[in-house]
From TrEMBL:
Pfam families: Lipase_3
Name of the molecule in the record: sn-1-specific diacylglycerol lipase
Cofactor: Ca(2+)
Domain Fungal lipase-type: 192-274
Organism: Durusdinium trenchii
Membrane association type: Multi-pass membrane protein
Length: 279
């Protein structure tokens, strides 16, 4: 898809050059026979004004599809890959990062497994977890209900009795902002924040920027950079609805749930809110 956009931008700039009489005259004086091919190469001369025009065209198309934040995200991804390359000393290696990844996987698989306490046998805890998994799934909505996010989430949850979806945002694009919803579960006396997992190409970009960064208010705690940014963005967007729901329903507590990208974001939302409570 990005290749098509880039090709379209390239063609637009090339045609603009090809139709410029002054450049056509220059080409004739230089004895250039295939003017269109020369114009195409000229369009991507490094540091040329035309090259900058092409870059801006591509940026505009990418922003239109993924949102204004995508360029910053791509820059962050580039920086993340640079650091990985330095850490793995890929410049000194005889193979690229694609061949290095299996070696990283092999090294990881050779590490000692962490100690575990055995299987979880608390039936009450398992039943509770199973109940909230439906809300994590609800954050994906239903494909056949587009444009009506609240209804889409409600159907995906399973239309549970006593549950009201008050806010729902299931965007098709936009990095560092996974889909999410706020609901009130009157039967269980809970306010719920559900966060969607990886669904769009924008979400995949968010997943990719995995550089460790400091969590505000939690000295020594590092987190996935883009997931942390997503958690901060989701809380900023939903805070008014969460606070209103908790005010309107005295004695209710807050449950934050999610799957995949949504699970990591949900954990970080919990950490950020807990850090605020300790301040």
């Amino acid at each position: 898809m990005a290749t098509n956009w880039f090709g379209s931008a390239h063609e637009s700039v090339t045609n603009a050059i090809a139709n410029a009489p002054s450049l056509q005259a220059v080409a004739e004086n230089l004895g250039i026979k295939d003017f269109h091919q020369w114009a195409s190469a000229k369009a991507f001369d490094l540091h040329s004004a035309v090259h900058e025009q092409a870059v801006e065209l591509v940026k505009t198309k990418v922003k239109g599809e993924f949102g204004n934040e995508v360029i910053d995200m791509l820059d962050a991804l580039s920086e993340c890959m640079r650091k990985i390359s330095e850490e793995l000393k890929l410049k000194e290696a005889k193979f690229g990062i694609t061949l290095a990844l299996p070696l990283v996987s092999m090294q990881h698989n050779m590490l000692e497994r962490p100690d575990v306490e055995g299987l979880l046998t608390d039936r009450a805890l398992l039943d509770e977890a199973a109940y909230w998994v439906d809300f994590a799934a609800g954050a994906y909505g239903k494909e056949d209900i587009k444009g009506y996010d609240k209804a889409s989430v409600n159907v995906a949850i399973g239309e549970k009795s006593g549950v009201e979806v008050t806010v729902a945002y299931l965007p098709a694009k936009g990095v560092q902002m996974p889909g999410h919803f706020v609901a009130v579960d009157r039967n269980n006396r809970e306010v719920v924040l559900g966060i969607r997992g990886t669904t769009t190409l924008s979400d995949a970009l968010t997943d990719a920027v995995g550089e460790a960064t400091q969590v505000p208010g939690c000295p020594g705690l590092l987190a996935h950079k883009a997931m942390l940014a997503s958690a901060q963005a989701v809380l900023e967007k939903t805070r008014p609805a969460l606070e209103q729901a908790l005010r309107d329903h005295s004695g209710f507590s807050l449950v934050i749930t999610g799957h995949s990208l949504g699970a990591g974001t949900a954990i970080l939302c919990t950490v950020l809110l807990s850090a605020e409570c300790l301040e």
